[in-house]
Amino acid sequence: MDWNKTKSIFIIVFAILNAFLYSLYLDRYKEAESVDFLSESSNEEKLEAESITYSDLPKEVEALPYVTGTMKTFVATDVPGVDLKKNNRNDRFLSATFTEPIPLNGKASSETLQEFVEETIYEGEQYALWEISEQDRKAVFTQKINGKPLFYSDNGSLTVYWNENGEVTEYEQAIYENVVEGEQQKALISPIQAIHNLYQKRLLPSNTNVDSAELGYSEYVTVSENTQMFLPTWHIKATFEDGTTEEFFVNAVKGDIIEIKEQTEVTQ
């Protein structure tokens, strides 16, 4: 037997086999990419079939990291340099009442309240307005984590109260400090995928309109005493066929539904 010829034949056969396997790998890879694209398209078709509508959703979804932060313990120097009637500190929650109410720069509104917070409250620029209750004359602000809102967290919130004359009388505050981004950027699901996940869980019935989808953070796990990890989260607001509204929170990394309770009053 001519071993040189046999060896050459084996080399040629293995080369052909390798080329075939590589070609098969490329075909499977392209097929997988096509399935991913069709999956997103299929989600849209399913939502359309159920008359679940939406508009103005974020088109570009950036990767985001997990983030950690530590609850701040307030000290006397953190209180604005104004005359206070009361300054109660319960470790990490601050409640301050002004001796003389501080007038807003005009009628209570999102603009005047945001201006007051940024100019008067400790680290006020870290808060974004969440909601205003004209009936209760109070405004709730949420802390921004990594530049995005922290959803329903008593430990990262600010509540401002004013009187009938449009003057701020008191406020309650808690804040995370030493906020650190994780090293790894996480790929996030699209808002369409988040909406579809809600539909799959039968949380969005037919003829629902999705009013908005906002990307932010929610409290995830406790790392150590007073230190919390935050998770990228989709905040979905929807209006049902009967006119009622609901809001949902979806894990923007893994897609599961998150239960977040509405913010409660700070207790001293």
Automatic annotation (TrEMBL):
Please name the Gene3D superfamilies in this protein's record: YycH protein, domain 3-like
Q: Where are the transmembrane segments?
A: 6-25
Q: Where is the Regulatory protein YycH-like domain?
A: 39-253
Q: Does the keyword Transmembrane helix apply?
A: yes
Quote the protein name from its UniProt record.
Two-component system regulatory protein YycI
Entry keywords, A to Z: Membrane, Transmembrane, Transmembrane helix
What InterPro entries does the database record attribute to this sequence?
Answer: YycI-like
